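Changelog-adjacent note: as of this version, every example in the card shows the full chain rather than a window. The one below runs 238 residues end to end.
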Amino acid sequence: MTIVRKLVKSSTDPVSGGFYTVKEAARLLNIAQPARVKDWLHGRKDTSTGPVLKRQYDPLSTAYEVGFWDLLEVRFVEHFRSQGISLQSLRKAAATARDVLKQQHPFALSKAQFITDRRAIFLQTAQQLNDTALLNLVTRQYAMYVVFEDVLDRGMSFDPGDGLAREWRPRVKEFPSIALNPIVAFGQPAVTPFGVPTSTIFKTWKAEQGSYAAVSEWYEIEESLARQAVEFEIGLPN
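Full-length structure tokens:
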């Protein structure tokens, strides 16, 4: 495999790298069991199974902090798990990708720049572990694999230099002004370009008995943006 890239970049500061609890990450990604997120980032204590992903932040006491790139990598794993790809294969693919691409967060990289590299890594992993599901996805169903990665790229903005994600609009068609950016509101969903968290707008909306006009006046934003924020929050799982 002839992949040589210098992509050494990492943010270990929650102020600029985004900050989420495991529960918040699961809610944003619509993952019913937050423990799954914890297992993928930390491994399972009751087994010898190690983590799938390499954490963005060093452990702090017993807390489980999730960074912006962690969040997107968990999203990546969740998508591939939904296609029946084993955690063993994803763990091996992630380790190989980190080594080959020289990047701690290979699943937070732009598909446009790295789809060929990632496909080669997945193909190698499938052959080594005899994972038929992964092998089929990247060979016999290659068109499906491309579509799958297109879905992962939807609503994403990437740094043109290193290819790493820098912003995610999770429901870009419905709520084009709602974005997660690690340097805005600690990475929480916020209204662009104003940076007001959707959760803050939602709480104010409830306090104002559902008045979008009041919210608009409070934060000096258009009512349409206030409505996007409220509907986005309502659409998240409880």
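Structural remarks: Residues 1-10 have pLDDT under 50 and may be disordered.
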